[in-house]
Amino acid sequence: MKREEVEHILREKYAEYTEKIIRNVKRLNYGTLLSGEESELENAWEEFVYQVQEEESIYYEKTIRQFIFHLLQSLPRSELKLLWLTTENYYEYDDTGFPSADEVIEAVEDEMYSYIERKASKGTLIPQISTSWRNRLKEEEDEV
After folding, report:
1. Residues 6 or more apart from 78 whose CB is under 8 A from it?
2. Which of 37-41, 83-87, 98-102, 129-133 shows the lowest per-residue confidence on average (mean pLDDT)?
3. Whole-number percent of the chain with pLDDT over 90
4. Is the Cβ–Cβ distance between 21 and 71 less than 8 Å?
């Protein structure tokens, strides 16, 4: 198998896990979204997409990373090592063998979060949000 084919398979695994995390984020129910009761956003994922696209501070990053960490804890070490092969940490790693389990998990978590953030940045949510609601939200932010 060529390296490109292996990377393609690993990207598919990341995409699969990304969708799993996004489903979990969509199920979050904090009662009221941060954007308020009048929000046109339906769930935490839509709010995260809005925050990413509007380049606001990302409130849900810690929560999403916790979902990722929990998922990674459930994977066999051999799968974590495979996923690690596509991370920046892999390309920067100078020692022989593999880094510690914690280092592998941290690198894979960062990579998976970047997949989720990229997916949010490409989402089609923003055009669906009304201009009046967006303006009202911006005014509230300016007051703070």
Report:
1. none
2. 129-133
3. 38
4. yes
Q: How many CB atoms lie within 10 A of CB 19?
A: 13
The confidence band for 127, taking pLDDT boundaries of 50, 70 and 90, is very low
Q: What token pair was written down for 2?
A: 């060529």
- Once rounded to an integer, what is the mean pLDDT over residues 68-84? 94
d(CA 119, CA 14): 12
How deeply is 38 buried, as exposed, middle or buried, from its count of CB atoms within 10 A (0-12, 13-18, 19+)?
A: exposed
Long-range contacts of residues 2-7, Cβ cutoff 8 Å, at least 24 apart: 6/85, 7/86
Instruction: State the Cα–Cα distance between residues 139 and 121, nearest whole angstrom.
Output: 23
Which pLDDT value is given to residue 138? 65
Look at phi and psi of residue 99 and say left if phi exceeds 0, alpha if psi is from -120 to 50, else beta: beta
Q: Tell me if 112 sits within 8 A of 79, measured CB to CB.
A: no
Per domain, the residue ranges of the chain are: 3-143
**Closest by CA position to 87, among listed 1, 2, 13, 21:** 13
